[in-house]
Task: structure prediction
Amino acid sequence: MSSRTVIRGGLVITASDEIHADVLIEDGRIAALAASGTPAAGAFTAEKVIDATGKYVIPGGVDGHTHMEMPFGGTTAADTFETGTRAAAWGGTTTIVDFAIQSVGHTLREGLDAWHAKAEGTCAIDYAFHMIVSDVNQETLKEMDLLVEEGVTSFKQFMAYPGVFYSDDGQILRAMQRAAENGGLIMMHAENGIAIDVLVEQALARGETDPRHHGEVRKALLEAEATHRAIRLAQVAGAPLYVVHVSAAQAVAELTRARDDGLPVFGETCPQYLFLSTDNLAEPDFEGAKYVCSTPLRPREHQAALWKGLRTDDLQVVSTDHCPFCFTGQKELGRGDFSKIPNGLPGVENRMDLLHQAVVDGHLSRRRWIEIACATPARMFGLYPKKGTITPGADADVVIYDPHAEQVISAATHHMNVDYSAYEGKRVTGRVETVLSRGEVVIDQREYTGRAGHGVFTPRSTCQYLD
Result:
């Protein structure tokens, strides 16, 4: 049975266009667009008609960086694939790319299979995987080729977290060389973890144990140094590089210089670096623990460089790095020792709204909002034009967005499985009203109508910004 839906009267916004158009959806895909009020649009017929008058019609968001059910620091991220993807849908995100983890001593395949088992049959929206490479050896390098063939086309490495995920420069270079051959994209957590560990040890020895010291020891210069080193290693290997969660002005400068030199280097930042700062980390009574993530929140003056980078395309993507740990019982593991606070904060539900607020505030244009939240992550990770745009043939991942509705972000009303909001009390203009995932309504006028298992694993091609 064929199913058809028409979305009428909205302003369709993609990364390249804004047009008042009606959208015809057939069998889970965009079938056609026609300017509203024209005979062509009038000819669209369907069982279901959604009135989007006065609203935006935008592609579902693509969050290229999430950590559902991730084990870290003796505990596990609080959102399951079921709760986390449901919250993503509430926030207008219809695709996540999560991270499967290779443990040291194990194969990539074992890690990937474990994450498939967590996600399969539980997701409300579509999902894909990156692969965290923690143990570079000859077998791992061979496995990278196989993963690329089956649609896991990006590999994350860490210059941070010695003893956990850390790779040394030689391991990084080998993985980059392999990616240069197989078309994979290396994603880098760029912080000098060896040096940071020295500063952590010294801070604790001085009795500096509060959450704010987490930010003070993870210095912006050590992010910049690692970013520079990653760029040069990638250049030696002839490989593209994607630097995750860029937070510091000095790191943006390294990316800008590399891009000005014509290198295939890309950067991502996250809402927490755009809207929060070390002021949050310094909140009294251990409240600052809520904001412990790595790279850390920076002093507010770094934000201008991040916004500028997004406007000039020296930063291309805003992802969440959603990795939620409850304040009670999880963040509290680090009372008296900031180094034991689980790193990560919740945000998968808030990204689209916060970036719309950036449009309202004049930081971004509407099309740039869609570009950094939908189209570019889809292209970066080999999902475009299936995801990230509204065009005939694309998956019907569509959000009806009310640009005038006002809301206050709060843990009392969010759908993430975590007991606090990083943006508690923040007033924003704009709100998701209705969400379709592959043509199926999963949020209907602010009511959840989705189901676990609707979302499917989506294999990816290689990065679409490369020849």
Notes: The chain has a mean pLDDT of 97. The longest strand covers residues 398-408.
